[in-house]
Amino acid sequence: MIQRRPTRQIHVGKVAVGGDAPISVQSMTITKTADVEGTLQQIYALAAAGCDIVRCTCNEAAAAEGLARIVPRSPIPIIADIHHQYRMALAALEAGVQGLRLNPGNIRRPEHIKAVAAEARDRQVPIRIGVNGGSLDPSLYEKYGGIRPEAMVESAQRELDYFREVDFDLVKISVKASNVPLMVEAYRQLSEVTDVPLHLGVTEAGPPPGGLVKATAGIAALLLEGIGDTIRYSLTADPVEEARAGRQLLEALGLRERKNVDLIACPSCGRAEIDVIEVANRAMEAFGDRKLPLQVAVMGCVVNGPGEAREADLGIAAGNKRGHLFVKGRNVAVVPESEMVEALVEWAEFIHEHGVDAAVARVDTRLAEREAAKDRNVLLDAQGADVNHSDERIVEIRKRVDGAT
After folding, report:
1. How far apart are CA 292 and CA 302, in angstroms?
2. Helical spans, DSSP H, in 50-95
3. Exposure winner among 117, 133, 185, 211, fewest CB in 10 A?
4. Distances in Å between the alpha carbon of 193 and those of 141, 197, 311?
5. What is the pLDDT of residues 248-298, one digit of tens each?
6. Helical H runs in 49-128?
7. Quick check: bond before 75 cis, omega within 30?
8. To the nearest 10°, the Cα dihedral for 26, 31, 37, 43?
């Protein structure tokens, strides 16, 4: 179990951040905010993919006016992203946004920062101090000799000091960088000096799959240490992919309750009777965004599949041109190989609605188990117990080891 670092709690609209609140998932629209209908369409898609909070750019008057129309129709809270122009923050607050993001690297005049904080205080709207390694105040670059974790932490603390001067404490902080070790160390240091909720992210992570790997490396490392209260994947991709990735990471770490299918699959081997990659991809597409919080397995053969994936709620394994369905490791049905994916979806929906016991009770498991045993024996007769020839390799290894001594 992950022991989370205690933080104070704030609210972005109805979403609690920090304290004992579930870690929330964020993303950002890539539409022009002035395009109200297009932006709302993207927001609804993000919400359906598991996004809890969404950020929209507010870089011009038309964007602020768009926010006034978007906020009341959005299914999730809206944060306005502000750069350079503090008046855009004031305009966004007037539009009714539930949060602001300010970058201390590009709004530097203390009177402007405090003016925004005072207005946010009066409206009880939280602000994220969004420190970015690529846009630090030049004085901090000079002081620390470049982008350093200490420089990023000091930038956040300077902003907090301005907020304190106007008695504003509805704050969360991010100290993002595109360099993962730098980002991780900055958050570690920050977590030691403040109890403000932390927003995690690797900025400019890039396109998948590399961007997914980079973002996961940084975010997961911190979450496993108990650091972090809300997260965002910054991918060069459809933002829906960001929301899905964030949700899947939290579910994988046991930090959020599962909402969608967790599809597991074997890496394949010499015994595989199907193209595991192709079937797994078809299964992922078939399940899509169905709200089925189950673990589903796609296994390449009936010899080892049900046993290796016995903890899965549901799975299917190939054998002798047939698909063998199993529930919690127990064979329950046999279907034609061409119908494997469809059968998985149908059984998953039944289990989700009625439960595992009801699913097992509706069939004669003895028949399924007999058929699975037949196909296992056929495969073992044809390929042997050691299809990957590991016993032969072990013999050769022992010869080499004995020869070396």
Report:
1. 25
2. 61-70, 86-95
3. 185
4. 21, 12, 42
5. 999 999 999 988 888 888 877 776 777 888 999 999 999 987 889 999 999
6. 61-70, 86-95, 110-123
7. no
8. -10
The CA angle 47-50-51, to the nearest 5 degrees, is: 60
Alpha-carbon distance 288 to 181, whole Å?
Answer: 34
Strands 53-57 and 78-82: parallel
In DSSP terms, 28 is beta-bridged to 55
Structure tokens at 147: 């982008």
Task: Specify the pTM.
Answer: 0.85
| Size (the chain), residues | 405
CA atoms of 177 and 371, how far apart (whole Å): 55
Span 367-397, pLDDT tens digits = 888 888 887 788 777 777 776 677 777 788 8
Q: Is 263:296 a contact under the CB 8 Å cutoff? A: yes
**Cα distance between residue 206 and residue 312, in whole Å:** 33
Q: Under DSSP, is residue 38 helix (H, G, I), strand (E, B) or coil?
A: helix
- Helices 276-287 and 340-354, interaxial angle, to 10°? 40
Alpha helices, H only, 253-318:
276-287, 305-308
- Please, which residues bridge with residue 172 across strands? 128
First to last CA, the chain: 45
Selection from 228, 191, 193, 257 nearest residue 4 by Cα: 228
